[in-house]
Amino acid sequence: MGSLSPIKEWAKLRPFSLAVKSQDVAYAWAELVDQVDSVAASLASQGIKSGEVLTCVGKNSLDMLLVYLACMELGVICAPVMPQTKLGFEAKLRVLYAKRVEVKVWCTPPNSSLMMYSNIELAPSCRDEYLVGYHLDKPASIIFTSGSTGVPKAVVHTSRQHLASAAGLLDKLLFTHGDIWLLSLPIYHVSGLAIVYRWLFSGATLKVASGDFQSDLSDVTHVSFVATQLQRAVENDILSGLTHVLLGGSHIPLSLCQEASNRGIETWVGYGMTEAASTVTVKLVDGSDSAGQVLNKRRVKLQGERIYIAGEILASGYYYQGKIEPLTHSGWFDTKDLGLWQNGGLRIIGRADNLFISGGENIHCEEIEAVLNQMPHVIQSIVVPVEDKDFGHRPVAVIQSELNINIADIERNLSTALVKFKWPIAYYEMPKYLYLNEIKISRLAVRQWTYQHRAQSNNL
After folding, report:
1. How far apart are CA 20 and CA 138, in angstroms?
2. What local confidence, expressed as pLDDT, does residue 1 receive?
3. Neighbours of 11 (CB within 10 A)
4. Quick one: which of 33, 5, 4, 40 has its CA closest to 19?
């Protein structure tokens, strides 16, 4: 890609090839450029300039995509943000804008609780000229981390960094002209935004999901799923046309992936994070504990068991009120994850901050979760340490399950896989609000709920 933005490059190379489609609309690359130019002109006419931040609130839609691409053309930093409570939204605005800087927000659809902040509108028929500000090395996006272990941070990437991420993955996982990737994950999460850049890198086709599961899958070749979505697609026999599935989330059953493979579908899994513009390692699902081999344009090293990453995909830094604090001064980013090299790949042990000491013994929360997640009817689990006067800390499991938790069955399974001091001392059903509409469950939220629940139970 040169000085032109990706969409304008593809409009020159393949003006009449299908670029993007939604439930109601389809655009070739040349038509997409016209639409994006119109939105960019509309934003410019409202005073949005290169280098500024536009906060975009909402779920995926064609309009959201057009606004993101228009920001690229203008050199504006787009900060997609999930629809959330006013309190959570205001906390993010305080990170993005200094006190004397005008807050600029676009919402889709209009959000009544946030209308006081929404001051940007779209005029898709706008045909005014605008000053093109696109550059590969300008800050392009701000994605907030999930905050799974603490306060969310605002991570800044350039287009070059995002496209390097796409290039490395697509060296392994084939996605090219004629293929269609479903934009099923929100672009306010790095996994969703990575789909957009894989499309921009490859010149293939992007389909914006409508929410109708069967209709969305009807004509796509590539999709990013969690295991439960793949299970649903298999059970409902709506896999026709699919060739590649990139899986994320919790435990992935090998039998499920074998079923997909029998139908001609490759299932891939990997390891990644927001700061690395999504995927760092990847592999075809094979039942092993490895997260796969390190992709091109990334570097990984271990110090002890601590994982450090570097390379072209690493974010420019953390954004705070107009300033960007570099992730690292050494070139190596401390992921705070722990891992081992295993059979040529990287095996993830867990988070350094999820390690705790119980009776003098080290316990990894993820080790217990891996056993729980393989049990029948368990969808996912989170293990947190709670204080104990005899052992210092002991593990507690919070489980999302298809059936009521049966402690006797769980402990029968645990007895063959874990020494007894690693068994949880209590099992709780996970409240729905902790996992509904979430790609990644917040450990911090689970821990807070657990402490509150135990405190209330002790006071009864």
Report:
1. 25
2. 47
3. 22
4. 33
Cα–Cα distance measured from residue 107 to residue 114, given in angstroms and rounded to the nearest whole number:
8
Asked whether 62 and 208 are in contact (CB, 8 A), the reply is yes
Q: Phi/psi at 232 (nearest 5 deg)?
A: -65, -40
Coil/strand/helix, residue 117: coil
CA distance 333 to 278: 14
- pLDDT averaged per 10 residues in sequence order, the chain, 460 residues: 86 98 95 96 94 94 96 98 84 92 89 76 80 96 76 92 98 97 95 97 97 92 89 87 87 84 93 95 89 96 95 97 93 94 88 85 89 88 90 92 88 90 94 80 88 80
Measure CA 121 to chain center.
27
Pairwise CA distance, residues 226 & 268, whole Å: 11
Q: What is the pLDDT of residue 459?
A: 65
Q: Give the per-residue pLDDT at 438.
A: 67
* Selection from 208, 244, 167, 243 nearest residue 67 by Cα: 208
Residue given tokens 């994950």 in the structure block:
185
Nearest partner of 260 among 244, 282, 279, judged by Cα: 244
Region of 453 (left: φ > 0; alpha: ψ -120 to 50; beta: rest) is alpha
Please give the angle made by the CA atoms of 8, 10 and 16, to the nearest 5 degrees. Answer: 110
* Helix and strand numbers, DSSP H then E, in the chain: 12, 25
Tokens describing residue 145 = 């981390």
**Residue 296: Cβ-neighbour burial (10 angstroms; 0-12, 13-18, 19+):** middle
| Cα 12 from Cα 7, distance rounded (Å) | 9
**Tokens 């609000």 label which residue?**
433
Cα–Cα distance, 434 to 447 (Å, whole number): 11
- The rounded distance, in Å, linking the Cα atoms of 170 and 179 is 13
What length does the chain have? Answer: 460
